[in-house]
Amino acid sequence: MGSKTPLYESHVEAGARIVDFGGWDMPLHYGSQKEEHHAVRGNAGVFDVSHMTVVDLSGPRVGDFLRYLVANDIARLDSHGRALYTCMLNEDGGVIDDLIIYFVGDNDYRLVVNAATREKDLAWIRKQAEAFDVDVVERAELAMIAVQGPRARELAAPCIAAEYRDSALGLKPFHAMQAAGWFVARTGYTGEDGWEIMLPAADAPTVWDRLLAAGVEPCGLGARDTLRLEAAMNLYGTDMDESISPLEAGLAWTVAWEPAERDFIGRAALEKQRENTGRQRFVGLLLEDKGVLRNHQRVVVEGVGEGEITSGGFSPTIGRSIALARLPAGDYDRAQVDIRGKLLDVRIVKTPFVRSGQVRIDI
Amino acid sequence: MTELPGDLLYTNDHEWLRREDDGTVSVGITEHAAHALGDLVYVELPEEGQDVEAGGEMAVVESVKAASDVYAPIAGSIAAINEDLADDPEKINQDPYGDGWIVRINVGEFDEGELLAPDAYQALLDELED
Description:
The complex is a heterodimer. In chain A, 21% of the residues lie in helices and 33% in strands. By secondary structure, chain A is an alpha+beta fold. Chain B has helices spanning 31-37, 84-87, 91-94, 118-129, and strands at residues 9-10, 15-19, 25-29, 40-44, 51-52, 57-63, 67-71, 76-81, 103-106. The interface between A and B is medium-sized, with 16 and 14 residues.
């Protein structure tokens, strides 16, 4: 038996198929993963993401600490409530985890890191924080609900306390606010509009029931994975890990090189990699034939070399199979994937595959 | 889960067989198997006329979650394949014992004693539930 979120009973009641996910008993789907996927693209779906780790940092030097801890630069957050996606690196430039940082107040930041990496992340953050005298407090008592889709905010707004509702609806993308013990952020992991709401565990089942009653579809980890793959959002442990740098995982945009004098963990290693023009490519693939691309399949680029699919699957929105892959350096736009001994044609496409309900690639 | 059809035979690998009027044997995967796989998105079928051995790989069903081999429960040659599955693999989820059939196999006599009657397959499922 794994850990259970405050919504475990709600999942069982909604007919969830429960699976182990990094030590947590989580819903895989509630009947049809594809229907849940389509609900998020076309209407609204709700995910229990309470297994994710919320960490609050505070102290007079917390800003300096974060500018040292992560590869993106929190100095880019110019007002309270803004959010930043970044990687936390080791000295070799490998990714310890990817995370979102919310700028809560001058001396306060909130981090959301992955569930499966909780212990090593907390140990790493605490170790690095010592020199900066920063308080590190895990908020395990909070539940977290992601409501996602074009109608997500409209359908979820009645759950928010009346005096905060208009402000919540006024949040811009990648902005967040406090609302009487709740924390509402216009962020997500689906490529759709929506909110991620952190709230006291005791409030979560009621909110969940209200969302379902309002017509929001309960969605499991299965749909979460196909949605994030279509949006070409990386999954930690699959698309990158401690042996892979953000530059090798399509996340160069999250590395803040300027100002040059800012020292962050892994910077020296990344700078060396950056000069190497023979670096592997991280690309999106579309399968031209019928079939399904899967993690770890071999990719063959004729005359160039071989690479590997890091995340592959069937795209319910496109109706074809798509993947993220790490491939050898070179200028080419076609490759082949080894599926059970047969080489099938794939085309390299610019990601995301899907965003805001629309297919963004040529099919 | 609905009740198992009483006129079929089953395998330990969660396939079902039905003797058709024309003498061929239809094969598919059980509702339990389809449910465990989740929404099916692709089915790789054998060629008509291809010979299959008992226990040999015959088709591949792929769901949103994973790829899974379908084994030939009996030896014979492929008499027909369900071409509708190419465009609509979810027929296997919707109607596993009907429109979701996968192949028909030409067989001679075969030993039904190696296969599971409905009550024996139900007992297997009950064990898995525990």
